[in-house]
Amino acid sequence: NADIKEWVVKKNSDMELSSLKTRGVGSAVVTKQVGFNRVLDITDQYKFEEGSVAGNAALRSQESIHQNHPVSFEVIKPSKDELPAGAKVRIGIKMHNKTDVPQKLSLRVRATLCSYTGRKLKALPMMSKPVQLSKGADREVDFTVTPAQYLNEFKDKVVLTFNVSAQMASKDEHGITMTFSDSFAVSLSPPELRLSVMSEISLDKRTAVHFEMNNPLRTTLTNVEFTAESDGLLKESVELELGNLGSAERLTGSFVIRGLEVGEQELDVALSCDQLTGIRASATVNVVSGAVAMPVLAETDELSINEVDFKVYENRIMHHTDEYDDEEQLILRRGQNFSVEIALSQPVKKVDVAFRFTLRKRIGGKRHTLTLINNNVPVSDSHVQTSVDLPANMHVGRYSFLVGVRTPSQHMAFFDKDDGCTVLFNPWCKEDDVYMEDQRGLKEYVMNESGGIWVGSHRRNRPMRWDFGQFDMISLETALFLIEKIPNRFRDQAALVIRHLSSALNSEDNNGVLEGNWSGDYADGRR
Question: pLDDT-derived band of residue 299, with 50, 70 and 90 as boundaries?
Fold first, then answer.
């Protein structure tokens, strides 16, 4: 509703209005056509005809929307504008009924997967929910885009665009249907290619560069190729053919660089395959003419761990636990590898890294503690990138989690993860008791959140639809509550865990979940 005003500036600096155009702005809405360098007029999708009765009524309605709209809305967007491929994208809509009467409305979320250049790749199915708000009520409704909805179309770096809208069942005083809308976008980055290399080397000195990458996609990466280039560190580029990388598998490798020129040298690496081409990483290595003096901690110096990145997003994807609602919890599966990055307070050459897991809420038997150690892990710029393999027979449950490092001069530092971690059975691991080879079975019996349970007698039975909700945090917390009733010495074998859980379900004598009722009074539930 802006106006175009033209002014004349006189010699004495006075300004005089010469013309006023009230219809020059807002008469049309245009955009670029998808796939063509042409203008597309989309005015009718966004506004009424200029000066029409309906347009004027809508304008009056929008001018007073904040005062007169019966429901207030707030869209809760992801905390980060860029998420790693394989992450779930959650959107929340908070509503408050400002009136003394119930309100009905319909919520809709449209998500579209686009390339980074704006080309539309896939329109995801529209998500909608009817909502009824009682008078003065508050409510929040969540929508989720799962990795399965976009990973098959994932190409390099992509963008998910969201259009969130709410339409009221009632109309305002002008007869206009009241609506609310918002839009935003979230970038999905390709898998991270990580490098580990010394930050400084001597001229003509050789040193190894280690690289690794996890495949978070639900498909195998085929014909994986790795390249590395640097004028001051490589006489010729490195080209490696690495074959295929399966879903949820980890790629590791190394190559050798050499200080060819004094000064800061850039090392650029890239990984490509049939599915992805935009995976890149770089590092800076300072080449010096003399010998590199590796700093050594004096006896009076203190070594500490500034921070530990437990890579919760990446590890949960690799461990098939990314569907659990609480995205901040580190939930792992035994018999599988997980990665961490440790930031030290001082530069050292190498360290031993220890991971100590202690089962929480010990009941019966001795306190169960598991310590896993990686020796002689290289340090780059005071950062340690390492990983650890959880045993396939590790006890399941909640653990306290401590990370420790030790230098060759016996300096030590520790980091205690406040909320610990959770370790589950792993049907994807061949060495685990619960291994399931059939991929369709894994999808149906492990990942599917709803299905059928059978009720009735041996001769007369039928399936009943059932919502398992195994990824709701209340379900996991309940299972862990029951598991913690099992003595520690039995928690490494699936059969023994199941037997004890069957007993723990009984509320009468085991303070469990189910309570029998044969009184004939079932007013508060079912028989």
Answer: very low
